[in-house]
Every structure is written in C-alpha cells, then in structure tokens.
Here is the input.
Amino acid sequence: MTNPPYPLRSVTDDEFAPWARMIADTYGTDRSGEELADQRGATDLERTIAAFDGCLPVAGASVYSRVLTVPGGVMPVAGVASVGVAPTHRRRGILTSMMRRQLTDLHESGREPIAVLRPSEAGIYGRYGYGPATLGNRLRCDRRALRFRPSTDFGNGTIRLSAATEAGPVIEKVYDQARAATVGWPDRQDSHWRVRLADRPHTRGSATALRFAVHQDSDGRATGYALYRHRSVPDALCGSTGVVQVEELAALSRQAYAALWRFLAGIDLTTWIEYEGAVDEPLPHLLAEPRAIHSTLVDRLWVRLVDVDRALTGRRYAVPLDVVLDVEDAFCPWNTGRHRLRAEGESVSCEPTTAPADLRMTAAELGVAFLGGTTLATLAATGLVEELRPGTLPLASAAFRGEREPWYPGGWAFPLY
Here is the structure.
C-alpha cells in the first residue's frame, strides 16, 4: 500500500504559526503576531490537522470544543474552523480527506455527536453531509424612519457607553444568560472572548473602534448590550453618509431590547443602521413603519450529525413522537439505516431498528432541521424528504420545530467565536 501523497497529521507547536498563516492566506487575510498568539491560545493542537507536501503545510482544519444551545437544552459540538487548502494544492482531494478524517475521528472517539461550521462558500459542505441549520437576517434600517409604536414598552432602565475593559466582564455575563435561551448560540470561554473583542486597527476596514453600549435596569443590573461601530460610505451626490454598524446585540428582556434599539436609532449624523439578527427579529414589530427595514437572508451555521442516534437524543421535541427514519449517509456510512426516534417530554430515545420506515432522508436534511428552523415539511416540498407512511410527515415536522427561529450571533471576528 502506497503512502498518501499529502499525509494528514496533527500540527506541532513549532508548526502552528506557518500553518495558521497558510490558512489565513487561503482567505486572503494576514495574521499579526498578536492575532497568532490569541488564535494559538484558543487552539487545541491535538484537534488541529494539516496536510503536508514534504515539510510544508498546504491545507488544514481545526476542531474547537464548544457547547451549543439546542431545542430543550445544550449539547457539546465540534466547532470546525480554520479550514483551508493552499491555492497551489486545490482540486487534489485534500479537503475531502480532511473532512473524512475529522468525522471519522469524532465517531470513533465517541466525543461530540454533532459538528458545526460556518462555510465561506455555501456550495462546499453539503457533499460532506452538512446542512444549513440557521439563517442570518441582514437588516438595513433607515434611521430617519425608525419611529416606534406609541405602545412600545422601553422600561425605566438606562444605557451607558463604557470602555472595553469595563464593559467586557458585564457583557460576558449578559451573553451567557442570553445564550441559554437562544437556540444556535454557543458558549464563549475566555479565549473565545479575547478573539471576539479584539479590536485591532487593521481589522476595522473603514470603521471606527468598537463602541460598547450597556443597558441596566432600575436596580443597576446589566440586562443587555450593543456592540457597534461608525463608518462612512459614499452617497449618490458624491458625498458621504453615516452608518452605524451593529456587531452584536443581546437583551435579557423585551424592555432592554426596545431601549437598545431606541438608543441606536437616536445616534445623530447617521442615515443607516446595519445589523444581522434572527429571521424572526422582533424589531419590525416595534415600528410604526416596518418598511423602514430592508432585509436579506443569508445562511449561517451549518450542522452535521456525526452520530445520528446520539445527536437526535440530545435535543427535545415540541410534541410526542414515535417515528422510524430511513437515513442515507454516503460520507459517514455508520449512520445509514433505519432509526426509531421516540420522544415524549424529557424522555427521548433513538435506536437502530428493522421496522418499516416512515420517512426517508439523508443526514444533511436532518442537519438542516436539527435546530428547529427549516421544517421537514419544507424539505419534503422540494423532494429532499420522502413520506413513506401517510400522516407521519406533519407530526415529525411539528416535533422538530422550535419555538423561535434559531440563529447564530453576528459579528464574526474569527470563525465560531
């Protein structure tokens, strides 16, 4: 048996910097010494692989251990990031070999039953069994038309602009509370926050430094925040117009949410506010003129069920369910077969079965529906899910559905941060 032309192995500490710079180059970016140090602090080298041409790293990928909020709870997930192949070595099967290595290692080790990533190109990862499980809603708001309905409850809290060093610990606590109730939000440990809040001048483009607006309720408890920047863009008269670029917003109450948006809408010398939120973002329903907001949907977090049975037992379901799923999975063949999923309240089981199947789909469709967004019924309308026993599709579709649309918080300083 001949050796593979580009062997895969873990990256050593001495190889990390050239490996990370090679990955950054595939995305058309640079990595400063400070950025490399932050990235190294967040990276588990044992879960970081590279393909080598001789001693030169020419491709790589990392797994970051994360915890993700799913319907009814939280689950450990393998956050896949820093995936890249040098332009000199593309179209040689290296990406496929790395994806296969990652998923096989996860399966054989019995670690995280789910892998998640945010792809740079949407067409790449479907062939590896990933499916788009969350959408981002890019909002472009005409600030001058953002008039709130008279009945809007802003509460009696206050908003204060804080320095990064003062705001950091506060917003970390708010985020941790908000993520527990928001499907699609991951945990952030110290190393993740360090990268997320890094605000180096060369990464800002034409925007200003990050601003930190913190909302406090009447007893002084922090209940929300907005991270934003200012920037100017050319207008139709060869001048410029001001934009408030909201990087992230989290609120623990509807009053804090409304107050933060009233604050942003009140920033002078601004024509547009840009923000990426949820598909069912509440903001339009607070406005007297909802058409002040223009929205565009974009795919965000993609989910891959590494082990179907373990993954499906890790979440909860909206209605009682007893259904046999016939799953096809060419890339991870251990998932191929029939699985009986039974769920009632906190009791959930999923086991291999020889019983007749009720629904047929691939593992990618399960990834799409896993977080409770896109429904199995929607996928069936495209032919991606097939109902084999009449009447099972509506029930299963309702069971997988979440209370609200899942979404991943915007403002990616680094993938999966």
In short: The first strand starts at residue 8 and ends at 10. The mean pLDDT is 93.
